[in-house]
Structures are given as C-alpha cells and as structure tokens.
Amino acid sequence: MTKKNAVKENIVVAIDYTLTVDGEIIDSTKDREPLEFLQGHGNIIQGLEAEMLGMAIGESKDVAVSPEDGYGESDEEAFLEIPTNQFPENIPAELGIELEIQDDEGKPAYARIEKIENNMALLNFNHPLAGKKLYFAVTVISLREPSEEELEHGHAHHAEHEH
Fold this sequence. Notes:
There is one protein chain. The protein is mainly beta and 163 residues long. The chain folds into two domains: 12-71 and 131-145, Chitinase A, domain 3; 79-124, Beta Barrel (Thrombin, subunit H), CATH 2.40.10.330. The chain has helices at residues 46-52, 148-153, and strands at residues 12-21, 24-28, 35-38, 60-65, 79-83, 98-102, 108-117, 120-124, 134-144. The strands form two sheets. Strands 1, 2, 3, 4 and 9 form a five-stranded antiparallel β-sheet that branches. A four-stranded antiparallel β-sheet has the order 5-8-7-6, with no helix packed on it. The longest helix has 7 residues, at 46-52.
C-alpha cells in the first residue's frame, strides 16, 4: 500500500541529499537548492530512484547503492595510452587532469589522466565513481504533479520564479 502523498512514478520530487563515497562527502545540496527530478524517468541514478518509491514529504532515509545500480563497474577496456607530447599546449599532462576529447565519430568523451610513466599518459574513460558503492542520506522536501510539458520531456523543469 502506497501513501497518498508519497514518491511514485510521474511525480516531481525535490530532495536534499548528501553523497558519501569511501567515507568522503562527494556531493550535497546543503548549501544550494534541493534537487528536483521526475520520478521514474531515469533522471537520477537507478539505485537511488528505486529506493525512494513510497517515501513521504519530510521522510529521511540512508541508501546504499551498489556499482551496478549506480555508475557501473569499472571497465578495464576504457583506458588509452597516449604520448605526453601529443597533448595540446593548453592541457598539462599531469596526474588527475580531466579532459574532453572527441572519438572517431566526433562525439565528446571525458577522461582523466590516471598515470604518467615514460612520457606516456594513461587516460581513464570510466566515470570517476564507477565501481564505487554510493551512500546517500536523502530527505524528501516536496512532491508535486508534473506539467504536461515535463511529462512529455521526461524531466522536471525549474520554475522561473524560484530562486
């Protein structure tokens, strides 16, 4: 039995959350507006969305999301080695640098420098949180019916008057 004013499919949900990974706070709405999304449309990671079904306004929950329900497992194939002398002058070949490159079809791909050895840089194309267990502390702030346009587009729109 679901509560009348509870998180369910096709409802716009606003949440406050804190995301912790490996004991470190990675992201939080603490100093900003709550996150608003349309439930059931994949606007947030699957593992968190599924756990929020049935939650009421003001309800809080701690949710642990496994990699397969979060950002996926780390893909051993998603690495590429390139000579450091092939880096453009404006991008330093330094550990941890994140960069955007284009694949063979011209689509952007994001990578970060994982290792530098013998003038070769190892680029990692995995999401930074791939393979990680995600811990969310989440509170439902508000629920509302979506507009026709939001339903059609499959995501929440932010009202102009809110800020």
